[in-house]
């Protein structure tokens, strides 16, 4: 009787398509890097024949159907909030309460309970306590909810750490060790992942992958943007991403920068103009408030330029979506930026890129493409020295492009293959549930 019941349950599971919850990369986010992560994953799942439903956790309220994805899978956006207003079903406090009582019709609790797996991205680099305890709580909330629901948790390729507090590290260790699969997006992060998992971890559950944003397919923007790029045909076109996160003078102390960021970027733009380039200023985070908004930083750079210099400068619309920005960036001859996913859009399009970074994560990701030396640490180098290194990268762009042409196709293929690995694993867990990483 038990055998027949088990066979019947297995048959029912096989008859329906897979159901996934995607967390940590809201599609309606104004950070185009986070959007690129979510879009890459959702596009792959929505196009898979074996997938029935994709529920994407993010900003907003309630449940909203999203019919913009090709493929037969249903894609819904579900609002979730780290809010004390527990009477709202979107509040993680309320979700936890409803989970404890069987769901109570809460749509998020229901999707979690019926998911074949919960796929979590942590915004790519937010699984850390560097941004404070509240931010870590928000990042951990969907992971912890998946475990409460008894569903397999998959940590998709991301950066792990650093963790500066004992409490933050213990929390991360628990979540990593409770995961069914965990992917790091570069070699450095993989070592952090192994440390969090501990010496008794099953190595087959800990994997070194690549950033899923490499899988993002570019999309042509509207005609006015295309015309703007075509209007400077024959010129050397470079893209410069200026990060609003580093704009304020307080960023020097907060991130340990070697010197003020904006003067360095102004000098860099001037030097590129002097080298004969037309410079497109690229915003990759929009609507995050004046202290993080890239458009605000770009305005400050423009204001510092002379009227003559401004004739060689253009600004891409901050309202372009991630796939549209990638299309634009793919038409540049060289690119530099401090937002890592802006540089990933370049690298993934085999456009030579120079990272002016404020953390260790960028060098690891550039390394997956064989160009780790194209990253300069803003915590060690600023001002004229940083500008000279950028100009050297610009001058060597043809050689860098050849390296990228050899290495990037393999990286893009890997970014898609790892999603197939997750899909295959999730289907197998229907009949043989996974244990934890340890």
TrEMBL record:
Keyword Hydrolase set for record: no
Domain of life, per lineage: Bacteria
Molecular functions (GO terms): transferase activity
Biological source species: Oceanitalea stevensii
Keywords: Transferase
Alphabetized PANTHER family for the sequence: COLANIC ACID BIOSYNTHESIS PROTEIN WCAK
InterPro entries from the UniProt entry: Polysacch_pyruvyl_Trfase
Domain Polysaccharide pyruvyl transferase: 87-359
Pfam families documented for this protein: PS_pyruv_trans (PF04230)
Name of the protein described by the UniProt record: Polysaccharide pyruvyl transferase family protein
